[in-house]
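the two lines:
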Amino acid sequence: MIRYPDGREYKNSQTKKTYNKKGSEANRGMNLEDDINASNEWYRDQDVCVITKRPTPINIVKVDYSKGARITDAYFEKQSTTDYNGVYKGRYIDFEAKNTKSRTSFPFANIELHQIEHLERVLRHGGIAFFIIEFELKDEVYLIDAKYIIERYRNGPKKSLSYEEIKEKGILVERSYNPRLKYMDAVEKIYFSE
Amino acid sequence: MIRYPDGREYKNSQTKKTYNKKGSEANRGMNLEDDINASNEWYRDQDVCVITKRPTPINIVKVDYSKGARITDAYFEKQSTTDYNGVYKGRYIDFEAKNTKSRTSFPFANIELHQIEHLERVLRHGGIAFFIIEFELKDEVYLIDAKYIIERYRNGPKKSLSYEEIKEKGILVERSYNPRLKYMDAVEKIYFSE
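prediction for all of em together
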């Protein structure tokens, strides 16, 4: 297993189809990123929307051309934006996915300032922006509008959001066989129904 | 200089500000990717739009944790989508940038089938999709709607677009000091004026 410097598991960005197909073994609940990636593949193949994960930026120091352009020295960079973006019904969608092992709150320390700034820009330009937050130990995933999180992040009063607050202001994302996370149902509900 | 297996120059995805600032040395016309990245930074800082380059996907084989998560074996993967996407006036924007050394035509061999398929999906979901094509030896850059290119790519009759055809169907992108490529002017003209 390959890990980032901060301990999170690294996934190669472009993997084989990972959503559940008839006959394949169940692979649900591996982790939030896997679940979102598999859901995005399913949504793409069902022609619901096109949402992709931005590959992890890597700074390359040395390449060995004698081995067919094999990278022999490089290091991870921080994503300067969020992890996911794409299009649904003509609208621009942009979000960040985060998980926490806390049962009681989501600490803002999990969010980088440049991600907040990126989402503020997206909102200024009329895009749809949100967070997907997983409470790992409760096995619950919430979708919550970025405006709400940004307001709290910028103005406090606390350096976290309580579980109750997220439950009240966000929408619980249903799990299913396909897609593993029905988060576009929540998007439809928040941003497209009136 | 680091190169991809196909010989193109590799750029680390997240570089320092590269657009022209007072007092900085002129760095125009380095190459198409540089020009677009610098223009995107300028557009972002001027609050015109948020368009970002997807980092180059890299498949990591080995990481040396004794050196602080240094990647010691990895290789380039092909982008499964296009290189650029983002938001302008609430709409989703997606495009691929290509250059050619030909003076007479743009060969479709420069485009990957999966890029065509990705752009077809984007169009189905109401996004704005185009190509930016540079004729290097003429120092001319055109923005041309993806629908037109896809139609020709899929149905022929030729395996290329002639320079005249691109000149007629596309829009010449003006160069300036900032942004280096005023391609959002062309976007505004094609997709937002009536």
